[in-house]
């Protein structure tokens, strides 16, 4: 059975994520233990709340080293919501800048929209060759709850090798809803709160492990 660790660093819908990943057929452990996180077939990095608090929690358990080591070895990592945001270089909230893990270039900023937070169901625009969204219709909706997002994808498209697949959504403006970049995948929405659509997406991820 595929083994997945949900990284416990004090922030995230840990039990919801655990139930969702177990539902689609994986053996799941919620832990901050580095050995277990490094040895698992897949690592899920959840996150809710403020960027600064999440990155502080991640650093407190050495999570940035765990993520970096896994990715250096081609070992899959899935970030969810703020767990996606902290993969970028920096976040800016209320004028305060915090450093992320820097796995991707880019800035997490407040969305320019009439209604904040962006909360509820929304569609996404996934690339035709996306593995994460394979088998899902274009009008499939996922559950979002956030006020901040990455508004510009900045990874150099001229880099050699496999190019990132970036999925977009719209709330007031376009923002990055998901990304697939080698072993590092992430979603701004919550697959664990997105019903059958989220379960299908998690199954797609598990198939790559």
UniProtKB/TrEMBL annotation:
Glutamine amidotransferase domain mapped to chain residues: 5-206
UniProt entry keywords in alphabetical sequence: Amino-acid biosynthesis, Cytoplasm, Glutamine amidotransferase, Histidine biosynthesis, Hydrolase, Lyase
Reactions catalysed, as given in the entry: 5-[(5-phospho-1-deoxy-D-ribulos-1-ylimino)methylamino]-1-(5-phospho-beta-D-ribosyl)imidazole-4-carboxamide + L-glutamine = D-erythro-1-(imidazol-4-yl)glycerol 3-phosphate + 5-amino-1-(5-phospho-beta-D-ribosyl)imidazole-4-carboxamide + L-glutamate + H(+); L-glutamine + H2O = L-glutamate + NH4(+)
GO terms assigned for molecular function: glutaminase activity; imidazoleglycerol-phosphate synthase activity; lyase activity
EC code: 4.3.2.10, 3.5.1.2
Superkingdom, taxonomy of origin: Bacteria
BP GO annotations: L-histidine biosynthetic process
Compartments, as annotated in UniProt: Cytoplasm
PROSITE patterns given in the database record: GATASE_TYPE_1 (PS51273)
Active site: 81 (nucleophile), 190, 192
Main location: cytoplasm
UniProt pathway: Amino-acid biosynthesis; L-histidine biosynthesis; L-histidine from 5-phospho-alpha-D-ribose 1-diphosphate: step 5/9
InterPro entries: Class_I_gatase-like, GATASE, Imidazole-glycPsynth_HisH
Cellular-component GO terms for this entry: cytoplasm
Assembly and binders: Heterodimer of HisH and HisF.
Function: IGPS catalyzes the conversion of PRFAR and glutamine to IGP, AICAR and glutamate. The HisH subunit catalyzes the hydrolysis of glutamine to glutamate and ammonia as part of the synthesis of IGP and AICAR. The resulting ammonia molecule is channeled to the active site of HisF.
Name of protein: Imidazole glycerol phosphate synthase subunit HisH
